[in-house]
């Protein structure tokens, strides 16, 4: 690393970032709160969320009510799992999947030229109509979910190594400390 | 290749927990829906999604000819639930605009001037248009008692060659 004389080199944060427990904690609580916040209006007004889902014109009309009810409560359960750190890998995977689903649904609707309200955080039909530019919010959430998922599956040290550590911890409880 | 296999194995091991989360959410959704005042049918066999059964049962339906009689009745308020620009491009005589997109914004003024027992005739674009029933649901929830939906919307009205107020034309009523 080339530095000017007398100046300290910039610290390389990447090794800390990729495996830091603090980053994992902030990410899972942050994303968990986002999911919980997003679920509130949907749980209180499931009928209005079903209307918005119908406007996406993706699902058959017959299953829209059931899907709207389920998605609202899925966000609640995922939010709680993430905040508590329970079943973190499964919750992180599902959070990523759910965000991909929302992003995909919005993109399909925008491609078709359907002007719709996202229904992401509010079920008010008078909300702002979504545009391609406004998808940055879901994009940011997807990036955070992906990061969380990778870290939950063993950080960036590699899934195989993480799986080995986990297997040894399961077979020989307490031995992982000695191995390190 | 081995790395990819390890990722797939790690994900597969999470499948039981993923299924448990999905199932838990489903059970909570069904339980919460059962006690919610706007309880929805889980499968929509008739009508539009987002309509509780008790709301649907309170709607009256009118075809274009029956709607014409309601329009000619001065006691009935005709409500256009389409977007405001479409209302301005042409609407049923005596109609006022209460667009679904913007309902929360326009409703306070509507509630001030329209008594709860006034008969209302609601319409939107066409057969598959659910805006009239969505607005109707909100009005019934807020206490309006006599809500009729024009079946087939303004398309059915036009198909029956019934009069329209077009831009520049004065709505005498």
* Class computed from helices, strands and strand pairing of chain A: mainly alpha
Strand content of chain B: 5-15%
- Tally of DSSP β-strands of chain A: 0
- The domain count of chain B comes to 2
Structure description:
The complex is a heterodimer of chains A (180) and B (173). Chain A is an all-alpha fold and 180 residues long. Chain A has one domain. Chain A is 67% helix and 0% strand. Chain A is built from eight helices and no strands. Chain A is elongated, with a radius of gyration of 20 Å. The C terminus of chain A is likely disordered. Chain B is of the alpha/beta class and 173 residues long. Chain B folds into two domains: 34 residues; 107 residues, Oxidized Rhodanese, domain 1 (3-Layer(aba) Sandwich), CATH 3.40.250. Chain B contains eight helices and five strands, in the order H-H-H-E-H-E-H-E-H-E-H-E-H. Chain B has a five-stranded parallel β-sheet with strand order 1-5-4-2-3. In chain B, strand 2, helix 5 and strand 3 form a beta-alpha-beta unit. The model of chain B has no long low-confidence stretch (mean pLDDT 91). The chains are: A mainly alpha (180), B alpha/beta (173).
SSE arrangement:
The complex is a heterodimer of chains A (180) and B (173).
Chain A: H1 14-19, H2 21-44, H3 46-55, H4 64-84, H5 88-112, H6 136-152, H7 159-171, H8 175-179
Helix pairs in contact in A: 2-3, 2-4, 2-6, 3-4, 4-5, 5-6
Chain B: H1 2-13, H2 15-35, H3 53-56, E1 60-62, H4 64-72, E2 77-80, H5 84-88, E3 95-97, H6 103-113, E4 120-123, H7 131-141, E5 147-150, H8 153-159
List keywords for this structure.
heterodimer; B: 173 residues; alpha/beta; Oxidized Rhodanese, domain 1; 2 domains; five-stranded parallel sheet; 10% strand
């Amino acid at each position: 690393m080339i530095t000017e004389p007398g100046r300290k080199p910039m610290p390389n944060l990447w090794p800390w970032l990729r495996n830091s427990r603090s980053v994992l904690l902030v990410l899972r609580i942050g994303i968990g709160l986002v999911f919980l916040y997003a679920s509130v209006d949907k749980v209180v007004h499931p009928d209005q969320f079903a209307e918005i889902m119908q406007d996406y014109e993706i699902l058959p009309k017959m299953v829209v009510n059931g899907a709207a009810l389920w998605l609202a409560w899925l966000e609640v359960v995922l939010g709680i799992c993430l905040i508590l750190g329970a079943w973190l890998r499964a919750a992180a995977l599902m959070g990523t999947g759910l965000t991909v689903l929302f992003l995909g649904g919005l993109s399909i609707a925008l491609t078709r030229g359907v002007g719709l309200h996202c229904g992401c955080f509010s079920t008010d039909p008078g909300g702002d109509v979504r545009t391609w530019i406004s998808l940055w919010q879901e994009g940011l959430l997807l990036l955070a979910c992906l990061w969380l998922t990778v870290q939950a599956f063993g950080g960036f040290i590699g899934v195989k190594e993480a799986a080995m550590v986990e297997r040894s911890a399961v077979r020989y409880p307490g031995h992982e400390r000695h191995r390190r | 290749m081995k790395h990819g296999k390890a990722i797939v194995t790690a994900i597969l091991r999470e499948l039981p927990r993923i299924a448990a989360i999905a199932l838990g959410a489903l059970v909570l959704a069904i339980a919460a829906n059962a006690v919610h005042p706007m309880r929805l049918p889980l499968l929509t066999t008739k009508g539009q999604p987002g309509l509780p059964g008790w709301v649907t049962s309170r709607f009256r339906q009118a075809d274009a000819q029956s709607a014409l009689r309601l329009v000619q009745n001065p006691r009935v308020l005709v409500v256009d639930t389409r977007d405001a620009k479409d209302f301005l491009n042409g609407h049923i005589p005596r109609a006022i605009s209460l667009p679904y997109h913007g309902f929360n914004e326009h409703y306070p003024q509507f509630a001030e001037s329209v008594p709860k027992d006034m008969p209302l005739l609601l319409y939107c674009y066409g057969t598959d248009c659910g805006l009239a029933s969505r607005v109707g649901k909100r009005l019934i929830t807020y206490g309006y008692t006599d809500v009729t939906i024009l079946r087939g919307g303004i398309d059915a009205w036009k198909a029956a060659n019934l009069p329209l107020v077009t831009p520049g034309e004065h709505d005498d009523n």
